[in-house]
Amino acid sequence: MTPLIPKDLPAPFGRYSHGVSVPAGCQFVMTSGQLGVDVNGQCAEDALSQARQCFANCAAILRSAGMTALDVVRINAFVTDRAHMADYMKARDEFCAAVTDLPTSTLVIVSGFTRPEFKVEVEITAARGTG
């Protein structure tokens, strides 16, 4: 993967790349949107804990394909309030702490999810060379 950060664009607002180029012949993994629900069906009340659980769930899916955060090329996230942005970004930055070639990242504020206690949802696209 090659991060794309053109000099004729402003710097990204956080730890992400404006674009990512993925070479031909890569294996792709795409997660469904993951909510902050653990294996026992429990959901924390606060946005930071939910975001961390979302990323933990995504990491479990990546592991099942032999991938890690180092293979992530795109993160899409959704929060129910601007007040949750900082907590989400903290969890994203923790998830990407060891990543040097940062993925793209989009955050959207939505009116809600399937249950009112959900505050954050995260979906990930990862790619890894097959050679």
From TrEMBL:
<protein>
    <submittedName>
        <fullName>Enamine/imine deaminase</fullName>
        <ecNumber>3.5.4.-</ecNumber>
    </submittedName>
</protein>
<keyword id="KW-0378">Hydrolase</keyword>
<dbReference type="InterPro" id="IPR006175">
    <property type="entry name" value="YjgF/YER057c/UK114"/>
</dbReference>
<dbReference type="Pfam" id="PF01042">
    <property type="entry name" value="Ribonuc_L-PSP"/>
</dbReference>
<dbReference type="InterPro" id="IPR035959">
    <property type="entry name" value="RutC-like_sf"/>
</dbReference>
<dbReference type="GO" id="GO:0016787">
    <property type="term" value="F:hydrolase activity"/>
</dbReference>
